[in-house]
Write a structure and sequence with these properties.
Strand content: 25-35%
Shape: globular
Structural class: alpha+beta
Number of helices: 13
Radius of gyration: 20 Å
Oligomer: single chain
Length: 343
């Protein structure tokens, strides 16, 4: 499902790097075979595993989804955008912010999950990954997260450190709904893409009995499974760690919520309490990033391929040429200065 900010960005790789690794229809025939267990598509590919692809599947079993995407300029540009990223996290996040759509989601869902047009031939085993879960505090209850919280510190730079992160929690019969707001900066400095979505959290302990919440859903057409662990909680802050997995493989991180955006700067005692909780959970407080929540009010636009952008997007010859990267990875030289906003 992530996630990407941690909730969204970590899951962006669900659609981005999975798509890159798995829609590759020609990986070196000389790559060594691997064992029958792997962490996910990315791990399998990086170790030289040969993907098993059925090219006809894209046009037979996923005919409608492929037709819908390949005849839509924004959807097709989203595919070529991701190809240019070569699975680089920030670049992929920007591609989804610029070109994300239900057509792209449907294509990913059909080709990679429902019909398995591309597979590794190996089974993913995350048993050991989840078995090493951090110790949650037992006294935590869903009502302790209700309301509006600022995400002010993040532990995994790939997923947790995007700017202007606000989470709004509301009770449901199953647990909590989490409305997630965050921004993705445009690489040319001209502004940002504003993201706003909701994930559904269930008040259950998960298969290992270790979680504070579990989350299962779909992001960019692909399924994610996630467990949250409440590590610290007192007046004014919450410390959360998470573990999750997708076809792409497992991921993990942590973050700090506060009720006031500058609470850790204004209150040394609160900062000391957060640091102590982090150390008790095996986390190094010095490795947390400080999330930029200054949030200018100008220069933003909604994330995704809206009707205005779709009407302006036009296919070019280079877009058709860049599709070859999906069918024969390494054909095109990577552009280190690639900017999704300039496509």
């Amino acid at each position: 499902v992530p996630k990407l900010p941690s909730d969204f960005a970590r899951r962006v790789r669900i659609g981005a790097t999975t798509l890159l690794a798995t829609t590759a229809l020609a990986i070196s025939a000389h790559a060594p075979a691997l064992a029958e267990s792997t962490e996910g598509f990315a791990d399998y590919s990086s170790k030289g595993g040969v993907m098993k692809a059925d090219p006809s599947c894209f046009f037979d079993q996923c005919k409608q989804q492929t037709q819908d995407c390949f005849t839509n300029p924004s959807c097709l540009k989203g595919i070529t955008c991701l190809g240019n990223c070569r699975a680089e996290q920030l670049c992929a996040t920007r591609c989804f912010a610029r070109f994300g759509s239900e057509k792209l989601n449907a294509w990913l869902s059909c080709t990679l999950e429902e019909k398995e047009c591309v597979t590794t031939g190996a089974q993913q085993d995350t048993t050991a990954f989840y078995a090493s879960a951090p110790q949650r505090i037992r006294a935590f209850k869903p009502s302790d997260l209700e309301g509006r919280w600022f995400k002010v510190r993040g532990y995994n730079e790939k997923y947790d450190c995007y700017p202007c992160q606000v989470n709004e929690f509301s009770r449901t019969p199953e647990g909590l709904d989490n409305r997630i707001l965050f921004r993705v900066q445009k690489p040319d400095g001209s502004g940002f893409w504003q993201n706003d979505f909701v994930e559904h959290m269930v008040d259950e302990r998960g298969p290992q009995g270790a979680a504070s919440f579990t989350v299962t859903g779909k992001m960019f057409g692909l399924t994610f499974h996630e467990q949250w662990y409440m590590l610290g909680s007192s007046d004014g802050y919450r410390l959360v760690a998470y573990k999750g997995d997708t076809q792409q493989g497992p991921y993990e991180g942590a973050f700090v919520y506060t009720k006031e955006v500058d609470a850790l700067e204004r209150d040394p005692k609160l900062r000391a309490a957060v640091d102590a909780a982090a150390r008790a959970a095996g986390l190094d407080p010095t490795k947390f990033c400080k999330i930029d929540n200054t949030c200018p009010t100008t220069g933003g636009e909604a994330a995704g391929a809206g009707s205005a952008e779709t009407s302006k997007d036009k296919l070019e010859w280079k877009d058709v040429f860049e599709l070859t990267e999906w069918f024969r990875p390494g054909t095109l030289q990577k552009n280190e200065n690639f900017d999704p906003n300039q496509m």
